Amino acid sequence: MFEKLRKLLKNQRGLTLVELLAVVVILGIISAIAVPSIGGLINNSKKDAHIGNAQTMVNAVKLMATAEELTFSDDKATVTLGTLVTDNYLDKIKDPSGNGYDEKNTVVTVVKKSDNTYDYSVKLISTNDVPYLDGDPFTIKRNNVKLKK
């Protein structure tokens, strides 16, 4: 009985070169498909984070309006990101692209309409002068957000 077991263990072979080559080729094909997909997912996540930051800024400006600290001129008000942070309506927000937002040129524009409702628009600009988005962050689509190439 032990003889048969010993012979059986001796007859086992490893992978042949062709089998090993087939495994390497399959792994190469899988990685060629997966790597671009992952890159697209990362960019889409950054774009979604920019939209989320813009929505947060609008909500902070709505708080300002509720507290009656929003100054209109010709039914229009503009609030910079720096003002929102300085006046403690917003903590400093992180730019998902890693550049940082330009606190003077990143602005929320509020337009008061005739029926006493408001339209909000956000212009997100990086410290490298990359304009990420410009428009209503609650209706803007991911493909309208620009990332630096």
From TrEMBL:
A GO cellular-component term linked to this record: cell surface
Entry keyword annotation includes Transmembrane helix: yes
Keywords (A to Z) from UniProt: Competence, Membrane, Transmembrane, Transmembrane helix
Gene Ontology biological process terms, A to Z: establishment of competence for transformation
UniProt keyword annotation of Transmembrane present: yes
InterPro entries with a match to the protein in the record: N_methyl_site, Pilin-like
Residues that span the membrane, as ranges: 20-42
Compartment(s): Cell surface
Coiled coil: none
Protein name: Prepilin-type N-terminal cleavage/methylation domain-containing protein
Source organism (scientific name): Lederbergia citri
